Amino acid sequence: FMFINDLEQCQWIRQKFETPGVMKFTLEEKRTLLARMVRSTRFEEFLQKKWSAEKRFGLEGCESLIPALKTIIDKSSEKGVENVIMGMPHRGRLNVLANVIRKELEQIFCQFDSRLEAADEGSGDVKYHLGMYHRRINRVTDRNITLSLVANPSHLEAVDPVVQGKTKADQFYCGDTDGNRVMSILLHGDAAFAGQGIVYETFHLSDLPSYTTHGTVHVVVNNQVTSGNQQRV
């Protein structure tokens, strides 16, 4: 919003969205964020150096997405969430698979190099369409959490209603009537989120009793907007 020339409008948005003191972290929290940021950055640097000619939809310019997602998951786990279902476009998917879902790196790398042997046969689809399901211990909360990244086609936002349906189904079958144990996270590009299309059509179902998932976290990612060395997520 900083491109808006009207100072009064900027201040209104800032007061609505930027809570004073929210960016004050303990030393341990700073170390955790730094470690996650380094993992995110180094992953992109390695792929760029090793397979520079491969199409991979890298996260350069928005590496802060990884610590942001992991913090959302940590806080959700603290509140009792046991299952997080995510949907996202291509941009940054490999990084999310590696550093958030914790897909084995050798499984990711063998998709770049045909000489490497994959641990599983796979679907034959391109690497930035594939999803992942993984149950593990959250290191911050020491609680079990299941992370799902839903596979999606080239139509970037087609996955949105699929994620909502999967979330609703999991809530139904585990008896989660208030959305306290199963939640969804949707990632969007800035242009796709603002456009009138499947994103808003999905929004329109958000409060219907038979469709609601009791809230979704939406993360809008734009790696083209920078201010100094700050990435926008």
UniProtKB/TrEMBL annotation:
Superkingdom of source: Eukaryota
Residues passing through the membrane, by range: none
Nucleotide-binding keyword on record: no
Reactions it catalyzes: N(6)-[(R)-lipoyl]-L-lysyl-[protein] + 2-oxoglutarate + H(+) = N(6)-[(R)-S(8)-succinyldihydrolipoyl]-L-lysyl-[protein] + CO2
Cell location: Mitochondrion; Nucleus
Domain Dehydrogenase E1 component: 36-227
Entries under Gene3D superfamilies matching the protein: 3.40.50.970
Keywords: Calcium, Glycolysis, Magnesium, Mitochondrion, Nucleus, Oxidoreductase, Thiamine pyrophosphate, Transit peptide
Swiss-Prot/TrEMBL cofactor(s): thiamine diphosphate; Mg(2+)
Known EC number: 1.2.4.2
Enzymatic class: oxidoreductase
Keyword Cytoplasm annotated: no
Signal peptide: none
Family recorded in the similarity comment: Belongs to the alpha-ketoglutarate dehydrogenase family.
Protein name, as recorded: oxoglutarate dehydrogenase (succinyl-transferring)
Originating organism: Xenoophorus captivus
